[in-house]
Specification:
single chain, mainly alpha, MetI-like fold, 2 domains, 14 helices, transport, transmembrane helix, cell membrane
Length: 313
């Protein structure tokens, strides 16, 4: 006589393969985790220890070579390097410039990307597709080449001043100014923002827009009440990636910006190589890291909200 399987035995039989696969999944994910901890996590811990004056061990060589190194007298370190950096008027000016350029560039990038995405969503046609395609072109141009093109385009003998000179007008020189840095930052950040925001807007059903139009809603009402709220998560992701990319940029401000003030990416490079003050450059790197972490918190929250809306959390 054969006994019929009970409900509990069926449940255990179904759950057993999933439980058995858990160690396999863990070991498959272990190599990249080890690589991240070894080549990213460990250097970060080592650099932070050096920034608070722990100059022994692996930090001994760079501490003996560098100038103006603050050594800790206690096991927990010393904030002397942070105090020196945060009381330096030049570095504070570079910090304010970094924050200002990041905020302005992010606003311009999101405004342009949102405009292109809305144009493509609401006025789909050849011109809209051409505009969205042109916005992606900077993605395939190296940043070094783009930066050099910006310098030659807006220099004292560049294209802009040459054209204006034909009409007897003296155009401004934007090469090696923060204006050129903003232009370069927008150029390099726009393609990803366009792709992200456009994909988010295209995922919104057209039936909702048609229903709003039938109810008498105008263009501005549709954008503010339907499109932007429903594409909020992709827009926020575009904001965070743009801001993080600009705040830690080096190539664009190095090629197109002035000697001083400039962004912290260039300043920390100068302190490390030209001034031979590695501890101060590491402190500036952690300041940028803190700013980027604050921006990344919005990205984590956006992903959590998206997962919650989909019922995954």
């Amino acid at each position: 006589m054969t006994l019929a399987p009970t409900r509990g035995s069926k449940r255990r039989a179904i759950a057993t393969p999933a439980v058995a696969r858990r160690p396999l999944g863990f070991f498959l994910a272990l190599p990249p985790i080890i690589l991240i901890l070894l080549f990213v996590g460990f250097p970060i811990v080592l650099a932070f220890a050096f920034s608070i004056g722990l100059t022994g061990g692996l930090n001994h060589v760079i501490a003996s070579i560098g100038l103006n190194v603050h050594e800790a007298e206690n096991w927990w370190g010393t904030p002397a390097a942070y105090i020196e950096v945060l009381s330096n008027s030049r570095i504070l000016r570079d910090l304010s410039v970094t924050v200002g350029v990041t905020a302005l560039s992010t606003v311009i990038v999101i405004f342009l990307a949102l405009g292109i995405g809305l144009f493509l969503k609401l006025r789909d046609g050849r011109m809209a597709r051409l505009l969205s395609g042109l916005a992606i072109i900077p993605l395939f141009i190296p940043v070094v080449i783009a930066s050099w093109a910006i310098v030659t385009f807006y220099s004292g003998d560049g294209f802009v001043r040459s054209v204006f000179a034909q009409f007897g007008v003296e155009a401004p020189v934007w090469a090696f100014t923060m204006v050129a840095v903003v232009i370069g930052s927008v150029w390099t950040s726009l393609p990803f923002a366009v792709l992200m925001i456009t994909s988010g807007l295209q995922a919104i059903p057209n039936a909702m827009i048609e229903a709003a139009r039938d109810a008498g809603a105008g263009f501005l009402r549709i954008v503010v009440s339907i499109l932007i709220p429903m594409a909020f998560v992709p827009i926020l992701i575009a904001v965070t990636f743009t801001a993080i990319g600009v705040v830690g940029s080096f190539t664009v401000p190095y090629f197109t910006g002035p000697n001083a003030p400039n962004m912290l990416g260039v300043s920390m490079s100068n302190y490390f190589s030209a001034f031979n003050q590695p501890q101060q450059s590491v402190v500036m790197a952690f300041i940028v890291f803190v700013i980027a972490s604050g921006i990344a918190a919005a990205y984590v929250w956006a992903n959590f909200r998206s997962a919650k809306d989909q019922g995954k959390v």
